[in-house]
Amino acid sequence: MAERVVITGLGCVTPLGVLPEFWEGLTAGRSGIGALTAIDAAPYETRIAGQVRDFDPHQFMGRREAASMSRCVQLGVAAGKMALEHAGLVPDGIERERVGIYLGTSIGPLGHAMEQHAVFLEKGIARVHPMAPAQNYPGVLASELAILLGLNGPAITISTACTSGADAVGLALAQIRAGVVDVALAGGSEAPIFPMLFASFDRLGLMSRNNENPAAACRPFDLGRDGFALSEGAAVCVLESETYARSRGASLLAELAGFGASCDAYHHLQQDPSGRQAARAIESALRDAGAGVEDIGYISAHGTGTRANDTFETAVIKQVFGKRAYDVPMSSIKSMCGHLMGACGALELVACVKTLTDGVVPPTANLAMPDPDCDLDYVPNNARAASIGTILSNTFGFGSRNAALVVRAF
């Protein structure tokens, strides 16, 4: 029998705050979406975003390290260090070669690279930061955390669009089961709020343009939804083999029980309308967890708030769950924290663990008039007390990607 994998620590940096504030915000139905201030908002039709405000990287690293790092890496390092502390682990007290780092990001340090390119064009070669080659590739996300913590296990960054964080968690699960490592820091980080990328999403028309009321802008499953809110942030979970966690007397928050992934191989931006491969990813995760649809007590939805995604996800859940789809509560935390792209699956896993430990299902905020094509129980507007045993978390992404995680209470 494969070694069970447990979650022992959580860390996050989000538009709603760090872990205590993040969870309090979700259960209160509070939004972290506000006016776009990180860049000049005037040129865009969308002028709102989910920004991490008042973040001080120097709480987590030295000034020299912070000065060379992209914001994506800074956020990821902060979440990783908080997760490690929450798990009661210190690098000096663990076998460093048996600890791996598995992080996901869609955009990575691209914003930082573009800043350096602008410096080169405007001020010349003498002003380009000499550490730019070591800081402007996606793999730096995992390697910097490993260097700062002195951890010698695998340090792997995965970039698979919006499924990156979930895929990184899935890889960590497999590596612990295979005995490669005893402990893994797994999650994702994203800092996508910079002019070029924001302009691209603005042109695609995928972001909400409800600039007058940012808190109500992201409306998953609502008839009036008009897109997602682009957000930055990071989330990391500490995963351990159950044997190792029990040997050190760790608090076992939940079991990471299953992972499944697939690719539609259909389109760069759109998912196969049949939903066959998305359904297969969910079915694979359930099979990996040794669970059936009757075991799932809550579904953490991808729920972006775009016209296409929400009806697609609803149809996929019906395809997998059949009539039981109408009996399982499903909600989208993106309605409050926005879309963290490659970090969203990891952040939603953090919320799933809190749902299991606290017995509270976060709501789908801003759901005033349900779309007739979205007719499931989306836990509208108010959190719900519930004793949940097993949760399914869905993530879908550009490039026809699908990922699903199953997490179980202890």
Give a topology summary.
Blueprint: E1 5-14, E2 17-18, H1 19-28, E3 34-35, E4 48-49, H2 63-68, H3 71-86, E5 99-104, H4 110-123, H5 132-135, H6 140-149, E6 155-158, H7 164-177, E7 183-190, H8 195-204, E8 233-241, H9 242-247, E9 254-263, H10 276-289, E10 298-300, H11 307-321, E11 330-331, H12 334-337, H13 344-358, E12 360-361, E13 384-385, E14 390-397, E15 401-408
Parallel strand pairs: 5-6, 5-7, 10-11, 10-14
Antiparallel strand pairs: 1-2, 1-8, 1-9, 3-4, 7-8, 9-15, 12-13, 14-15
**Could you tell me the radius of gyration in angstroms?**
20 Å
SS class: alpha/beta
**What's the helix count?**
13
Supply the CATH class of the largest domain: Alpha Beta
Number of strands: 15
Label the CATH architecture of the largest domain: 3-Layer(aba) Sandwich
Shape: globular
Distance between the termini: 18 Å
- Please summarize the sheet with the most strands: 11 strands, mixed
From the 3D structure, determine the CATH topology of the largest domain: Peroxisomal Thiolase, Chain A, domain 1
The percent of residues in helical segments reads 25-40%
Number of domains: 2
Q: What do the pLDDT scores average to?
A: 95
Model description:
The protein has 410 residues and is of the alpha/beta class. It has 2 domains: 5-247, Thiolase/Chalcone synthase (Peroxisomal Thiolase, Chain A, domain 1, 3-Layer(aba) Sandwich); 259-408, 3-Layer(aba) Sandwich (Peroxisomal Thiolase, Chain A, domain 1). It is 34% helix and 19% strand. It has 13 helices and 15 strands. The strands form 3 sheets. Strands 1, 2, 5, 6, 7, 8, 9, 10, 11, 14 and 15 form an 11-stranded mixed beta sheet that branches. Strands 3-4 form a two-stranded antiparallel sheet. A two-stranded antiparallel sheet has the order 12-13. Helix 7 (164-177) packs across helix 13. The radius of gyration is 20 Å and the shape is globular. The mean pLDDT is 95.
